[in-house]
Design a protein that fits this description.
8-stranded antiparallel barrel; Lipocalin; alpha+beta; 4 helices; single chain
Length: 166
């Protein structure tokens, strides 16, 4: 009887002992605002070209080629996003011909978890551009994926890497 009581007390002590060893929950802090993250001036610093029609490639990244040395030879294009008015404008430079849009309004497809930036140039039309990854206030790079089409078929894809200017 004493041994059963001792085993029961020992098991209870062990159970309470392990309860005290649980790690404390850590707070990540407030959620980053994607609107705050994209706000400001960005400079084109890198351009990757992807041949999307290669039959032997398993993924698009298999045919990725950094073409920055060829395309970014002088003054690179810049883009400004205003989170308050949702206006954007670009400064012409190397790479602006791949981007296509010059000024207008912009919005995310979802302000909390964006996948696309939607550029609207009024009568010139609307352009949906994929975000490669979210952009937060602490991020230094904004990467946009631009698809080019010919005859209704996607022929080439560009990843435009913009670095935060200010």
């Amino acid at each position: 009887m004493k041994s059963k009581l001792f085993v029961g007390i020992f098991a209870a002590a062990l159970m309470f002992g392990f309860q005290g060893c649980k790690p404390e929950k850590k707070e990540l802090g407030p959620k980053s605002s994607q609107l705050d993250g994209i706000n400001g001036n960005w400079v084109l610093t890198r351009t990757d070209q992807i041949d999307v029609n290669v039959q032997l490639a398993f993924t698009e990244s298999d045919t990725l080629l950094n073409v920055s040395d060829v395309l970014l030879t002088s003054t690179p294009m810049e883009i400004n996003f205003d989170k308050n008015s949702f206006a954007f404008n670009t400064t012409a430079g190397d790479g602006s011909d791949m981007f296509g849009a010059s000024s207008g309004t912009w919005k995310f497809d979802n302000n909390d978890y964006p996948s696309y930036v939607i550029f609207n140039e009024g009568s010139a039309g609307q352009m949906n551009v994929k975000l490669i990854r979210p952009v937060r206030l602490q991020d230094h790079y904004l990467i946009l994926k631009i698809n080019k089409f010919k005859g209704g078929k996607r022929t080439v894809c560009y990843h435009l890497w913009f670095e935060r200017k200010n």
